[in-house]
Amino acid sequence: MNAKSAMTGSPLANAGVPGQWTTGLCDCFDDASNCCVTCCCPCVTFGRNVEIIDQGTTSCAHAGVIYYCLAHVGWACIYTCTYRTKLRAYFSLPEDPCGDCLVHFCCLPCAVCQEYRELKNRGFDPSQGWLANGQKWGQAGLTVPPTIAPGMTR
Among 63, 102, 130, 150, who pairs with 50 as Cys (CB 3.0-4.6 Å)? Predict the structure, then answer.
C-alpha cells in the first residue's frame, strides 16, 4: 500500500470536506496553544506535521533539526513547502491562497499552523506522533494504516 492510500484509507483521515481546507491560512488562533508553540519554536510544529505526513518514516526530531538548520540560512521554506504539497495531495486540497512555495515563503508560521490544524481536524493528533495515533485507532477498532519499521530507507 502506498503512502497516499494508507493516509486516506483511515476513517479518521477522511473527515472534513474533500477538496477544501478546514481552516483558513490566518486562523492561527483557532488553536492558541499550537500558535504559541509555532511562534516560539516552529521547528517543533513542523516536525510533528512531517511525522504524520510521512507516516512515521521521518521522525519529528529529524524533520525539526533539518528545519532548524535550513532556517538559519533562510531556506526553510524550500523544504517545508514540499510537505504542504504532500498534505494537499493526501486530502485533495487546493493551492490556496496561492502556490505552496509562495505561501511558505511569505507566511511560514501561518502555513505550518494551518497544516497542523488540518491534520487535527481530519482525525490525527500530530503532538502524539504516528505510532500513538495508530494505537489510538487500533483501540477504537478503526482501520489502522500500516506502520513502517524504523531504520534505513535507502
Answer: 63
